[in-house]
Amino acid sequence: MAEFDLRFSSSPHSDAGTFKLLELPPDLCKLIEGSLEGASTPSFTIKGASDEDAVLCTADKTYTVRSVVLSNSVLVVTRDPADADADDVDVPVEDIVIRDQLSEVIELVPSVPRLHRLNALLRGREYDEGHEDEDMISDDEDGNPRKRPKFTYEDARMTIQASDAELDRGLRDRRVLILKGELRPLAPAYLTTILEVLLNRLVSESLSHANAPVTELLQGLEEHDIPRDVTRQVMAWFGRFHWPDGLEAWEMDADAGVREIGLGILRSHRNDPVAEEDFLAQWRNAVGDTFAERASLALLAGNYLTSTAPLTDPPVSLLTYFPSSALPNDPAARFAELFLARPRWKGDEIAPFLADVAVDSKERDKLLLKHARAITDPEGIWYTARAKYNA
User: Fold this and answer.
1) Angle at the Cα of 117 from the Cα atoms of 112 and 121, rounded to 5 degrees
2) Terminal CA-CA length for the chain
3) What residues contact 276, with CB distance under 8 A and at least 6 apart?
4) What are 238-293's pLDDT values in tens digits?
5) Within 10 Å of residue 199's Cβ, how many Cβ atoms?
6) 0.85 surpassed by pTM
């Protein structure tokens, strides 16, 4: 065993606090080990304002950064930086110096991306039919109208605590257009209109939704005063572009398109429940005979509540628009809202409403264990609130 002379650093004041221990989860270890073999160079970014907890972002994942106190202090020892041969790995090491003393380790925990701030940052910037080119006006501190500054994709990258891949997915899920670099949420009603026009165009021109010519679709929607840039981005949200035989074609994700049209209809029933059969009939009529069989409530999981109409025989099932995206991001507050809306839930019913606050099913089960109580009756397992919530 090699022996070294151990001594204190000659610059203890400048060395103190300059070292941190970072514990890497297995997936990050593999990423870094792969880069050492020359596969790729990973990029890590620390994000967070002064009033936020820091997160570390890779290209496609987000990790919460937290400090864990160690029961025993750890000494950081290195070769003496004052040694003239300190950078020469071929020179034998004789002396090592104590550079720092650590009592905590930085831990990285997989986390859901913190995309909820997008809702506030994009408020008032909607892109809607008939108001596409209007300047967005807001009042300054003195109440005088002024043009609101643009909020760009780069602004979002700097502000939102999420990886680039998660941010892109969040913008896509929120149906946010990027027009001249600016982020503009597409108005839900206008999106529904665009999708209905797209579906009608496919049917009227006898085009395959798996291989539709892009140029023809863009021209068709221009006849309805829908700009090509908007149409192309909407098509990218609900399908993919490919180039069979050298011509650009669009393969539609039919379920995604049908789902969005269903949501567009359901949104008008937030405070006015609709009979399930009436809703399904309206939905199937909106998507047309070609796609009618795809209209299923399973596509809308996490966006509605069911109830039974009083004094009806046979019982009539009602649907109420109740989107998980409108619920609080904090798990405790979310469970409070869920149990105020309904006192007990089946596991498969509540799961879609927790998808965006839990990294995976394991974390979701931990949240259920913490905030809910499981009870069993002849109908199966139900989850009820651990705390009392008052409406």
Assistant:
1) 150
2) 69
3) 297, 306, 316, 317, 318, 319
4) 999 999 888 999 999 999 999 999 999 999 999 999 999 999 999 999 999 989 99
5) 21
6) no
